[in-house]
Amino acid sequence: MTEVNPEILERIKKGETDLFREVVDTYKDRAYSLAVKILKNREEAEDALQESFLRLFRAVTSGNYESRAKFSTYFYTIVYNTAVDYYRKYYSRVFNVSSIEVHEANYSDGDELTRNFEPMIDRTAYDADSLSAERTLEAAEIQRIIRGYINSIPQQYSVILNMFFVNELSHDEISGILKLPLGTVKNRIFRAKEKLKEILFREFRKEELMEYLKV
Amino acid sequence: MNDFNKIEELIDTGMSVSLREKTGAGFSDKLMREITMMKEFEKQDKKTFKLMNVVVAVAASIILVSGVILAWLIGSGSGDESGAGAFSYLKDGINSFGYKFMSLFGLSPTGDVFVYILIAGIAISVFAVVERFVIRRGYN
């Protein structure tokens, strides 16, 4: 996991503010992914992210950020709260990450994870001459399915998945930021992965997937 | 690595890649410009705040000193109604103006009343200025 060197934060606090660019470049894309998942709008997400970085800058320079806290967790908490504030402002409704009740017992049932998603496989794309071209197309197809699936799932899942896979936060950290029980966080990640696996196995044979992994 | 782990890896990598988004070009530049501006505004604000504190302190001191002098003049003038001096002259002037002006409304205030009103007005002004630039500023 990429963490900013605490020495850099200390130097920013002492007045070397140009070094803040290093912090921005380290976190901007991953934090932006999180803001987009919450706001579902790129422009608003960028505004929220800019506001988050300004809040972070003020916290670092004023000494409000204590280096005892893990920096990435601290920053992603700011991003989450800022994006949720923007969500309330723009959509005039509460962003409720816990609105979907998850029961482990029925995770495999047809549920909200696949409600808005139907994978469309373009089999004509497999009429390629060479094996490597076929594999590349297959890989692209798999990636397209995964992306379509990610875009179709509710925010209550995509935010957690983003925090786990992109922001590289632990289950505990996610649970702390979202104020959700640890079990719920683990369960949602598990369910989302299981559903994706199910979709991929429905569209591809296991051998095809293994071939993709060799590319 | 067995097949199960490989599929898990495929899912994890696929999720990680698909979830990623990229900020628009020039995001960092725009943000750093914003930070530079914010710092500049903060610097200017600090300067203005310092200057205002000095101005308020000087004004308050002047008013306080004037009040003390005025009080002293009232005290020294009270024993000798016909005495010479700037204050007596001022008081006489106020008296004559006050009588003429206020008699239009059927009132006849003395010069002392005008001085008290003047001091009260000054005190209100000082409070308003201090409240505007020092007390309220301190809350923010």
Structure description:
The complex is a heterodimer of chains A (215) and B (140). By secondary structure, chain A is mainly alpha-helical. Chain A has two domains: 6-91, Rna Polymerase Sigma Factor, Chain: A, CATH 1.10.1740; 104-214, Orthogonal Bundle (Arc Repressor Mutant, subunit A). Chain A is built from nine helices and no strands. Chain A has helices at residues 6-13, 20-39, 42-62, 71-91, 131-152, 155-165, 171-178, 182-203, 206-214. In chain A, helix 2 runs antiparallel to helix 6 (155-165). Residues 100-110 of chain A have low confidence and may be disordered. Chain B is mainly alpha-helical and 140 residues long. Chain B has one domain (42-139). Chain B has four helices and no strands. In chain B, helix 2 packs antiparallel against helix 4 (111-139).
Pick out the low-confidence regions of chain A.
100-110
Q: What oligomeric arrangement do these chains adopt?
A: heterodimer
Q: Report the strand count of chain A.
A: 0
Determine the mean pLDDT of chain B: 77
Q: Determine the N-to-C terminus distance of chain B.
A: 60 Å
Sequence of secondary-structure elements of chain A: HHHHHHHHH
CATH fold type of the largest domain in chain A: Arc Repressor Mutant, subunit A
- What is the alpha-carbon Rg of chain B in Å? 35 Å
Radius of gyration of chain A: 20 Å
**H/E element sequence of chain B:** HHHH
Total tally of structural domains of chain B: 1
What is the name of the CATH architecture of the largest domain in chain A?
Orthogonal Bundle
- Tell me roughly what share of residues is in helical segments of chain A: 55-70%
Task: Return residue spans of chain B where pLDDT drops below 50 for at least 5 consecutive residues.
Answer: none
